[in-house]
Amino acid sequence: LFKDTNKSSDITKALELFRMQDDKVGQIEMLSKIAEIHFVYGLWIESENEWLESIDLEKQIGYRHSQYYFDVLAFFEQARGNTNIALSYANKAISTMEEINDRAFSSHFYFRKGNIYGGLGDWDRSAYWYRKSMGSSNQANTNRLWYPSFVWLSSTIASSGKYQEALALIDSITHKFPP
């Protein structure tokens, strides 16, 4: 998909056809595909606009699983240094996920929010969200982010000057999961 230079052109043509037919589902599908391509190529402004348009279309058809778009938008804004906007998108991702009870990637969304607060130097809130990410990983049986959450949580606690607490956390985890 990403190496085929004609693919982008084909998807753009398909998007225009779906627009002419007022096929919102087709538009969402094509916008998502072209946004992914633009994301991979670093065309973040285009990608952002396509995901925002997808969110609007999804609202129009009553589709409520937009937490994934909000998470990517939070990533964009965090990378740009717009932490307040990133936090707003992260909040939307989490509130949408919780509202529809689609918690498959909850640890990821909580991890993102911990990262944003860490970037602000708000160590207590950052630690809260990393802990929530670790707990969510266990509940959802998705351990992919458990270890990074643990590492970032330890670092966050140490960065806040709570060295003994960081060591106690590391010792407790090492006791449960010896190296």
Gist of the model:
This protein is mainly alpha-helical.
How does this structure look, described?
By secondary structure, the chain is an all-alpha fold. It has helices at residues 5-20, 24-40, 44-61, 67-80, 83-100, 106-120, 123-140, 146-159, 163-176. It contains nine helices and no strands. Helix 3 (44-61) runs antiparallel to helix 4, helix 4 runs antiparallel to helix 5 and helix 5 runs antiparallel to helix 6 (106-120). It is elongated. The model has no long low-confidence stretch (mean pLDDT 88).
Largest sheet: none
Radius of gyration: 19 Å
Backbone structural class: mainly alpha
Order of helices and strands: HHHHHHHHH
Strand tally: 0
The gross shape turns out to be elongated
Structural topology:
Layout: H1 5-20, H2 24-40, H3 44-61, H4 67-80, H5 83-100, H6 106-120, H7 123-140, H8 146-159, H9 163-176
Helix pairs in contact: 1-2, 2-3, 3-4, 4-5, 5-6, 6-7, 6-8, 7-8, 8-9
Question: Keywords for this structure?
Answer:
0% strand; 80% helix; single chain; 179 residues; 9 helices; mainly alpha
